Amino acid sequence: MADRSNGFLFPGVRRAPSRFRNPLAQYRLSIGQDCDNCGLCVQLCPHGVFLPGARKPRLSSPQMCAGADCGFEDYCCVGRCPKRAISLKPNPSFELLGDLRWTAELLASTWHMAETGEIPHQGWNYRTGASGGGFDKLRLLFPPRKGLYFNEKDISLSISLNRTGDGRPQIEIPVPFYLGGMSYGSISIHAMLSRVRAASCWGTFCCTGEGGYPDELIPYDEHVITQVATGLFGVREETIQRVRIVEFKYAQGAKPGLGGHLLGDKVTPSVARMREAVAGSALFSPFPFHSVYSVEDHKKHIDWIKQVNPRALVAVKVSTPTDVDMVAVGSFFAGAHIIQLDGSYGGTGAAPEIAKKNIAMPIEYAVPKVHRFLTNEGIRDKITLIASGGIRTPHDMAKIIALGADGVCLGTADLVALECVRCHNCESGRGCARGIATTDPELTGLIQPDWGTQRIVNMYSAWMKVLRSILKRLGMKSVRELVGRWDALVHLDHLQPEGIQGELEA
Amino acid sequence: MPPKYHIETRPVPNRLPPISRSGVVAWEEGCLKCARCVKKQCVYKVYETRKLDPSQMRESLDFACKDCFRCVQNCPKGLIHKTLDPKFLALGDQYWTGEIISRLWFQAETGRIPVSGAGYGGAFSGPGFDSMWTDMSEIVRPTRDGIHGREYISTSVDLGRKPMALCFGTQGELLSPTPPLMEIPIPVILDKLPWSPLSKGIPQAILAAARALGTLAVTGPGVWEPEMEPSKEAALWSLGQHSEELPWWLAQGLHLVELEDGPGVLENQARLKDFNPEIIVMIRIQLGDESGRRTLELARAGAEIIHLKADPWGRHRGESPRFVLQAVREIHFHMVEAGLRDALTLVAGGGVAMAEHMCKLIIAGADAVSVDVPLLVAMECRVCRRCQDGLACPAGLEDVEPRWGAARIRNLISAWHNQLLEIMGAMGMRDVRRLRGEMGRAMFFEDLEREFFSSLGRRV
Known about the structure:
The complex is a heterodimer. By secondary structure, chain A is of the alpha/beta class. Chain A has 2 domains: about 25-95, 2-Layer Sandwich (Alpha-Beta Plaits), CATH 3.30.70.20; about 155-490, Aldolase class I (TIM Barrel), CATH 3.20.20. Chain A is about 30% helix and about 15% strand. Chain A has helices spanning about 40-45, 75-80, 90-95, 105-115, 190-200, 235-240, 270-275, 295-310, 325-335, 355-360, 365-375, 395-405, 410-415, 440-445, 450-475, and strands spanning about 5, 10, 25-30, 50, 60, 85-90, 140, 160, 170-175, 175-180, 205, 225-230, 245-250, 260, 285, 315-320, 340, 350, 385-390, 405-410, 490, 505. In chain A, the strands form 7 sheets. In chain A, strands 10-20-19-17-16-13-12-11 form an 8-stranded parallel beta sheet. In chain A, strands 21-7-22 form a 3-stranded antiparallel beta sheet, covered by helices on one side. A two-stranded antiparallel ribbon of chain A has the order 1-2. In chain A, helix 9 (about 325-335) links the parallel strand 16 (about 315-320) and strand 17. In chain A, helix 4 (about 105-115) crosses helix 15 (about 450-475), helix 5 (about 190-200) crosses helix 15 and helix 12 (about 395-405) crosses helix 15 (about 450-475). The longest helix of chain A has 25 residues, at about 450-475. The radius of gyration of chain A is 23 Å and the shape is globular. Chain A starts with a strand and ends with a strand. The model of chain A has no long low-confidence stretch (mean pLDDT about 90). By secondary structure, chain B is α/β, with parallel strands linked by helices. Chain B has 2 domains: about 20-110, no CATH class; about 155-450, TIM Barrel (Alpha-Beta Barrel). Chain B has 14 helices and 17 strands. In chain B, the strands form 5 sheets. Chain B has an 8-stranded parallel beta sheet with strand order 9-16-15-14-13-12-11-10. A two-stranded antiparallel sheet of chain B has the order 1-4. In chain B, helix 4 (about 100-110) crosses helix 12 (about 400-425) and helix 5 crosses helix 12. The termini of chain B are far apart. In chain B, about 50% of the residues are buried. The chains are: A alpha/beta, B alpha/beta. Chains A and B meet through helix 3, helix 9, strand 18, helix 10 and helix 11 of A and helix 2, strand 4, strand 5, strand 6 and helix 10 of B.
């Protein structure tokens, strides 16, 4: 049966294994000298860890190994090997992966989803990280079963990006997400193409970021959001007229209140051409727009874009100051269709650590604050509220929608799908050693766009499955029903077990 | 407008290889000797510069490696692995973590702000300083672009007592006395160290750095050396509880003197003022249950500067333990309520480990902060505190060369100054004097948590 949402056919999953020889696995398996190549392990393992080999089986996919969790199963290779030749040890490198937000298990889970399009079977926590607050302390609360039986595939995931009723196109996307701005220059053209093509497969959008609109993206114009930011790099009338959505970036969560900064090393001749700048010299994208110091100025900006492109919707990307609710309501009255609140857990490129950690409020507080304010003002259903900067999993997505967003904007998850290890060195030297956030021609070649597209498609395929199963357990037939449903969430620090009814998410 | 404040920085190399979070383990056994070995393809060229450091028995690549995992993932025999370095885990303690220490080293070495890609990877919030976020401006309020130098942000603060009103005579002549006031270009003074190996070089380095920065370093009779004479103008002489100990030869050139709080401290202050009316007196109070009341009392009685000091972990002494941030916030409020806040200067310190702590203490109500342990860390201290037990310093701090140490501290404070500009620029502030007590531009974990999450999972 076709996997549809409102008539949209979900893109197909094809296996897209790691592009490196040794996938980063949690366990190190080894087959000792005693092995007589009986092939039992190849036959037994339901996860496809082994492939037949000439002298002994080949350990082709150690990342699929469920490790200790497998020990009680009758297909466990370690226990069943007639020669006891297989040994299993933890992989020391695995411990070093990730950070508190993206734990090793979360990274490995995301890689698994990008490879297979499935939820990981390895027993990893693919729902939350270990940051000790916000998303990682929020849990979904499923109501007692009400006997709502419907097919998961009938659950609609689509959201509307124009709710203003201003006569501009009614753009709906079949999934509650689009992909956020990462500029050409901060990521490679291959990574960019992978993202844009994946967005087009999903019938949604991908933003160019502030780095110009490379010609390679022209075939996907219908799925591109072009960004107008303070540096106006590569912004031309023609690029604004090409697209269906134009995004104003007022601020970004990774460096709220601070300008963008592309180090000189990354300004290669091609980047310089795209941005109409000089190769090798650092590029500052100032903060703020010096033409905007009020809501009236802001409206003038939006009117300008609407004039240049009469069919475009306008999105406004802002960060989360104390008065983020005022900013949101101002954007609404200035005529924006979409307001995107950007939190500080995302972003490529160089950002001062002091800014990422300390400036502006976490997205988990900003979304309910804005949602509540817009609701009280009676305009909540006239604007699309998008959350970004820290959405790592389909669970985060469900939680932030329940807190009040209509949908989310994603970026870092895509990079993880492309095998980012979150070493945080995007900005240094020749750029990302893994060929994602770089413009170095040799490193760029580490990613092939076909492979990258498939990885991102696969990951979101798994996400959408999870999101649907969450909605089903909540008894909802559309993701739009989840918006602002604070009652579908509990916070572990404030939970009173006797105060809730229903089943808590694991 | 005063001339723009600028701190000269230059790279000042480490003396010892820094300790990094992880190391590389590469087995030779089973190596295929590939013609295109993954080690040769390292983007950061760490294997080319690799050498064994004989004093540490450690491969130098451990700290050059940037954890990209390319070699780990591409070695055909899987012979390369990364592992946590136990030395890194052993750095410092729960408060002075390895992350904090290694970032301080980086700033002291380079003078640059720590910058990284791929978003914030740390904890959601935490105790103490981590329970607070600062504000930013967009659309409805302007920001200031301070860091790239397009707009000027002043970080100068005044030390001393200010008259709350001025009286003029019939001819327009000023009748009210004007107490001495000193302006320093950064809201930081370098405090005496809670622990330190015995070394002549350390106090010299700190004082020389203070002089180069235009600020003050707390120093005193125990550590004074004739070599420090040229930096005398930066000395903030600490007298303990006895004003008699001020040497006459020093008193004429000094701007500030610190007295420990105690009975008779105000008499001592008066005695010093008699001796040299231009001297400003700072009274040091160990933060505790009584410090709020005491600060108010001293403020009413004419104190000029109060230095509120918590322990090196930001803790406050007494029955109801508080973190320095909360304690300063409360005292600031008391003073505002009493109508005395603008009369005197509050300097706060203890547990200030990162630039953000400085910014947050100022937002909580301090005019300036005092920094101690980071000065030692700038000189490669590992916060092991063995020196407290009289043991030798593993980082060889006994033999610190003063010029090297001063340059490292200058780099560190320059990086902090730039981070202060980032925080203020994002808030749209042009003057650090206005940042003081601006709690409306800060967000607190408790408040936000109560507002948005406390009802989730409760019957309301």
